[in-house]
Amino acid sequence: MSASSLNSPEVLQLIEQEKQRAMVNEMVAKLTNTCWDKCVTSTPGSKFSSSESSCIASCAQRYLDTSMLIMKRFQNMQQ
Question: For a designed S-S bond to 52, which of 13, 30, 38, 48 qualifies (C-beta 3.0 to 4.6 A apart)?
């Protein structure tokens, strides 16, 4: 593969998509670890308790809201 083909729009788009996919995977991993540690306080059975389910949903929503707020702030700073 030549150096010029590595800079083609298709390759650059693929690289950008892979970067975004890696960021999403990292975010999901952090969210999972954070919310699990915060909300699951006992050995899980086949189902979460209602308080654990509620805590996980709330934790995930707060995590996503905060992440979106931070991304928007960074975008505004770049403009």
Answer: 48
